[in-house]
Design a protein that fits this description.
Mean pLDDT: 83
Oligomer: single chain
Strand content: 5-15%
Low-confidence stretches: 116-121
Helix content: 40-55%
Distance between the termini: 48 Å
Largest sheet: 4 strands, parallel
Shape: globular
Number of helices: 9
Strand order of the largest sheet: 2-1-3-4
Number of strands: 4
Length: 211
């Protein structure tokens, strides 16, 4: 390990989709303005599966989320990384990370590649991804054991999938509202991007009322 002599305590847990490009993850983290230290499962967990004692099954355990809750209890926030190659909100693990962070009272922040217009409030990836409703029932998961554990945990929580999905929708809504308010303050209210934000906000508000 490069920093084995002076390990750092993670302050930000990074939620990202494994189908996304690693280069996009690095660009988004760099553009996020977050200082870290970051906890990224791709580096924090040993995953070659060539040493039985360090198998993913042993590291994650039987409980849904594995070490997720333990890391979040020590961290200050969860950072969701959006990339153009994969919808993070279609991945069951990522949804579960957001839900767990909210349950533990941790702030959930959203980051993506640097905005095209150079204004931090404009996040076209977020607007695009919010067009599709959160649907944990159809969300994908790589490992069958993880999927079964997470789905059992969702069904066991009060309100089941509806409560779970609404929690994530509310996180997305808060991010949209925050960015919209920054645009209004910057004089972008009556622009096309300003209208796109407002439309996305109304769409999520409508979903939450209908559920």
């Amino acid at each position: 390990l490069k920093n084995a002599a002076r390990p750092l305590k993670a302050s930000v847990l990074v939620s990202h989709a494994w189908d996304a490009k690693y280069s996009d993850l690095l660009v988004a983290l760099s553009a996020s303005g977050e200082d870290g230290p970051f906890w990224v499962c791709a580096m924090a967990l040993y995953q070659p599966e060539d040493i039985p004692a360090f198998s993913l099954e042993r590291q994650l355990g039987l409980e849904a989320g594995g070490p997720l809750a333990a890391v979040l209890r020590c961290a200050d926030a969860l950072l969701c990384v959006l990339t153009p190659s994969c919808n993070i909100f279609s991945r069951l693990w990522c949804l579960f990370e957001v839900f767990t962070a909210v349950q533990l009272g941790r702030e959930v922040r959203i980051a993506s590649k640097k905005p095209r217009f150079g204004l931090g409030a404009i996040d076209e990836f977020l607007i695009k991804l919010c067009e599709e409703p959160v649907d944990s029932k159809s969300a994908q998961c790589g490992r069958r054991a993880d999927e079964m554990a997470i789905r059992w945990a969702i069904q066991a929580c009060p309100g089941g999938h509806a409560t779970f999905d609404n929690t994530v929708e509310n996180v997305r809504l808060a991010a949209l509202v925050k960015n919209r308010d920054q645009l209004v303050g910057g004089g972008w209210k009556d622009t096309e991007i300003g209208r796109q934000y407002q439309d996305a906000i109304h769409e999520i508000e409508g979903r939450l009322r209908r559920r």
